[in-house]
Amino acid sequence: MRLMGLDVGSKTVGVAISDPMGWTAQGIEIVKIDEANGVFGLDRIAELVKEYEVEKFVLGLPKNMDNSIGFRAEASIAYGNLLEKEFGLPVDYVDERLTTVQAEKMLINEGNVSRKKRKKVIDKLAAVILLQNYLDSQ
């Protein structure tokens, strides 16, 4: 069963896909969206769902550090509800606090990636981390 991990922001969605056995997560791409104007990249997500035969979505839930649900977490839940309605596939949420920080540290410390290049891949790497964390917990 293939899973699609999504790191949802207001302007981009990082996308990762699990291998067919559900052991590892690989970064696929970053989908541009415009949350403020109701553009959610569903056409591209649909193409990826079909291409990879996705059976479930795993979305990052960016809780506040005190474990409460804030504006960004509510936006992620709304995006998940939109995915459920559009694709009829289940959506699971994984606590993604600090995944973007972890991704940035990996790119700086292990990859020595410049700030400009980090901006282009950070959301995709965050999607990989959150999906891998989900896979490891199953």
Automatic annotation (TrEMBL):
Domain YqgF/RNase H-like intervals: 1-103
Subcellular location: Cytoplasm
KW Hydrolase (keyword) present: yes
Major location (coarse): cytoplasm
Keyword Lipid biosynthesis on entry: no
A cellular component term, taken from the record's GO annotations: cytosol
EC number of this enzyme: 3.1.-.-
GO biological process: rRNA 5'-end processing
Keyword annotations from UniProtKB, A to Z: Cytoplasm, Hydrolase, Nuclease, Ribosome biogenesis
GO molecular function: hydrolase activity, acting on ester bonds; nuclease activity
Pfam families found in the cross-reference section: RuvX
Function: Could be a nuclease involved in processing of the 5'-end of pre-16S rRNA.
Sequence similarity: Belongs to the YqgF HJR family.
NCBIfam families per UniProt: RNAse_H_YqgF
PANTHER family in the record: POLYNUCLEOTIDYL TRANSFERASE, RIBONUCLEASE H-LIKE SUPERFAMILY PROTEIN (PTHR33317)
HAMAP family given in the database record: Nuclease_YqgF
Name this protein carries in UniProt: Putative pre-16S rRNA nuclease
Organism name: Trichococcus collinsii
